[in-house]
Amino acid sequence: MDNRFPALSIGFRALACAMLSLPALAIEPFTVRDIRVEGLQRIEPGTVFASLPLRVGDRYTVDLGTNAIRALFALGLFKDVRLETQGDVLVVVVEERPSIALVEFVGLKEFDKDVLSKSLRDIGLSEGRPYDKALADKAEQELKRQYISRSLYGAEVVSTTTPVDRNRVNLTFTITEGGPAKISLIDIVGNRSFPDQTLRDQFNLDTGGWMSWYTKSDRYSRTKLNADLEALRSFYLSRGFLEFRIDSTQVAMAPNKQEMAITINITEGERFVTSGVRLEGNYLERDNEFKALIKIAVGKPYNAETVAETTKAFTEYFGKFGFAFARVEAKPEIDRQNNRVQLVLLAEPSRRAYVRRIQVAGNDRTRDEVIRREFRQLEAAWYDGDKIRLSRDRVDRLGYFTSVNIETLEVPGAPDQVDLLFTVTEKPTGSISLGAGFSSIEKIALNFGIRQDNAFGSGNFLAVEVNTSRFNQNLVISTTNPYYTQNGISRTLDIFHRTTRPFFGNLNSYRIINTGVGTRFGVPVTETDTVFLGVNFEQTQVKEGVGIQMPNLLRPYIDKQTALPLTVGWARDRRDSALVPTRGVLQRFNSDLSIAGDSHYARATYQFQQYIPLTKKYTLAFNGDVGWGEGLKGREYPLLKNFYVGGLGSVRGFERNTLGPPPSQSGNSAAFFPGGPKKLVFNAEFITPFPGAGNDKTLRLFGFTDAGRAFGANESVSLDQLRVSAGIGLSWISPMGPLRFSYATPIVKQTGDRIQPLQFQIGTSF
CA 654, 659, 664: angle at the middle one, nearest 5? Predict the structure, then answer.
């Protein structure tokens, strides 16, 4: 007579396990002679046998039967499990869960399908895996939360299963995204000293504008709102409102889930003036040195930003003397009767420490030595805050990591020791590119490149670049070892082949072919200054077009001309960013001296850029670029080494390379602009965020004024001969690189100048 356990449902496992014991009480224990498994379709029998807590020859009991069912359910592979006995044979009857045949999304627009599929795969919902209703419900709720994070509060997500053959199901997530909930109102209540619009200007969130499609600033986000509230708090605290507070914030959603209203209740408090600053505590008998670091203005409204800057400067200065755990606290003494506040800067340097060990973490690919050679703080040396910050900056400037963080760790049982932990996050440093670029002069330019800034984690640079356009075809192979020597001298090797065609006239009238190899060494002089020394071998030839007359000025170069220029350069870059600078100075000097080969000449250039932040939004930028060249040993300066001015990168509003000595005419090749051995270029820009783009620095507007010209060998450099233009432009850090548009109007021009008001190009500056 068969004894049967009741069928079990996955949703009631605990209850089922309790029920199992009831009929099992009537079963007499017996010795298991054999075990059979029935109902398997895709799962191997060995999986079942390995999970059973009993074997052939064991004595079956009710407890063992209950444990067996629990163990099989724990696998997550079965929809139903029951045990049957046929004499002394134990029969395990299972019903497999259906497997997932296909996971698909219907109505998905906001997210990438592949990304969502990977996320579901990580939690166990993918093709070939057993279907689990609980996991599907969890995924459904998580999708809804992701839509809410993007302000799509009306989004609906429904998961359904469709049975197919071989006990499989198709899992479908049907999504109705709807439109995003947009901010219809931002109301600030309680402000008396500043108008609403001034306060709303501090926010990244807004009620929308004509650029909202790009910035999405009208989409509500709790994270963005918190950041805006902190910006509002900083605005008041930096203007004397010491007791400012945000009382409450209400976010109300319309019934249609398409509109949101934000109400912020604030209490401004009184405005306080700083009456004085007093030092208290231990300042290492260097009170005057610390006083020189005070940035708090006495007699001016209280400013929390200058207070924070002062306490930070004090803490960093303590670190310079080895006090890694110094504490500096600014305590306000408030005189509410006169609305004045005196700040007491209380310092406790704690104890001096030295660095026991420096650890590096997160560098999965970059070798330790590549990071450690940038350190200026050494192990077993006194803790030096300046050297630690410099070490962090140098590692960050490598460009191999998305983030570089330093933690100071106390050493248990050693109060005078600390460990430093440098944690880096690797980023991809290699790229293979195949694409096209556009400019107003060169039209379509195809390019292919293989670039690795951190080849094999060694810190070496390796690149192969191929570029082609109507006027320029380049093949360049370059490699740089930044630590060719242990003290940081770099070595660069270049091999290049360039072909240039005329910008004006007949494209096929001539070709200038320039081939060469070169090596350059960079010698660090200071932390921000580098001197470059190098030598190149160059070979230049001009080839005439078939049946087309080229300019007579180029005829001397039909025969190959060789040169062996020695190069000396210097660079100092103190900008805060290479792509979107807002402060700092960049200086470059480079000189070539060729006294061997067919060409004997000297050539030098100097560039100076300065960025001045007027406010957090507005920046003033200046650029100066001068060049000079002269022939040596009685020979003329090589025409092909001339400077060219005009177009983006020099004087906008004029055609590229046309501002210089008058062009020569030669047959049907039309105008040939020879440039000159001397040049002057000056630029000024006023840079502002794009209207409606908030504080997004990747999209900016600028107004500019340019002046410049190239001068011939027999011309005197004269400011009266400079061409001047003014206009407006757009700068965008696009996926293809820095993209700049400009529209310029000539202010000072001469008859015959070639005007080109609208210009654009990728990768130019000024």
Answer: 120
Residues contacting residue 126 through CB under 8 Å, at least 6 positions apart? 100, 103, 117, 120
Q: Are 126 and 117 in contact (CB under 8 A)?
A: yes
For residues 139 and 120, what is the distance between their CA atoms, to the nearest angstrom?
7
Q: Considering only CA atoms, which of 105, 184, 205 is closest in space to residue 146?
A: 105
Q: Which of 156, 153, 264 is nearest to 219 (CA)?
A: 153
DSSP code at position 712: -
Buried (b) or exposed (e) across 657-669, using 16+ Cβ within 10 A? Answer: bbbbbebeebeeb
Examine the pLDDT at 366 and tell me if it is beyond 50: yes
What pLDDT, in 10s, does the model give residues 706-728? Answer: 999 999 988 899 999 999 999 99
Rounded distance between C-alpha atoms, residue 35 and residue 89, angstroms: 6
Helix, coil or strand: residue 346: strand
Taking the C-alpha atoms of residue 176 and residue 154, their distance in angstroms, rounded to an integer, is 8
Q: Which residues contact 337 (CB under 8 A, 6 or more apart)?
A: none
What is 347-388 written as a DSSP string? EE-----EEEEEEEES-SSS-HHHHHTT--S-TTSB--HHHH
Residue 200 identity (one-letter amino acid)? R
CA distances from 546 to 501, 506, 508, 673 (A): 14, 12, 8, 21
* C-alpha to C-alpha distance for 556 and 63, rounded to whole angstroms: 103
Asked if residues 467 and 458 have their Cβ atoms less than 8 Å apart, the reply is no
Summarize pLDDT for 116-147 with one digit per residue, the tens.
Answer: 888 888 888 888 888 888 888 888 888 888 88
Q: At 212, which amino acid appears?
A: S
Q: How far lies 280's CA from each of 293, 305, 349, in Å?
A: 15, 21, 12
3-state secondary structure of 214: helix
> What is the rounded CA–CA span in Å between residue 201 and residue 208?
13
Residues 6+ apart with CB under 8 A from 471: 441, 442, 500, 501, 502, 503, 507
| Two structure tokens written together for 393 | 């900056």
Cβ pair 346, 280 in contact under 8 A: yes
